[in-house]
Amino acid sequence: MSDFLFGFGALFSIINPFGLAFVFHDRTLGLTESERARVAGRVAIYAFAILLGSLFAGHLVLRFFGISVPALRIAGGLIVAVTGWTMLHAMPSSPGGHPRSGADYATIKRMSFFPLTIPLTAGPGTIATAIAIGTTNRSDDLNSIVYSSIVWLLVAFAVSLTVYVAYKRSAAMARLIGEEGTSVVTKLSAFLLLCVGVQIIITGVAEVVSSLKLVVG
Description:
- There is one protein chain.
- With 217 residues, the protein is mainly alpha-helical.
- The chain has 9 helices and no strands.
- α3 packs across α7 (124-135) and α3 runs antiparallel to α8.
């Protein structure tokens, strides 16, 4: 239970599904409740797959392609920052709560993986955190491997289920705080998303600088 709470708490904190729900709602304003629920389900499934892949084999994938975690942070941080910047300067919604762009279900469905899952939901910070959790207490003992696998599976499922519930109920949360409140929270979430992206980049650059100092030293 302690390992589950550690993994779930770490991933839940960095994803922040209930905060991102307002961003998800802003990106899916033109959808009906059932269509939004289907998109939320697709995002949750994609997030579940990404979390499982990161927990079980993330370190192997990075090693195979020769990608360092700092490089993952910098590249992903740039995408997150650009997403936040774009949302901050997006045109306001038209009266009635529908976006002027008129994006339909088919268009938004194609966005389920990118950018709604990556980098919005399961971004570089989430992937890096999952990889770090997956490498913690790694052992060759069969019992330990089975135990860790079960815990990681439950963690990924619980986090993905939380994402689905938060995204599915995003419209209800938006109605609860009203149109003006939703606009404020969306812009605030976009600004925080921009800050998160910048922080991820800073962390990646700091890790690169630290490794260079060790090499030079």
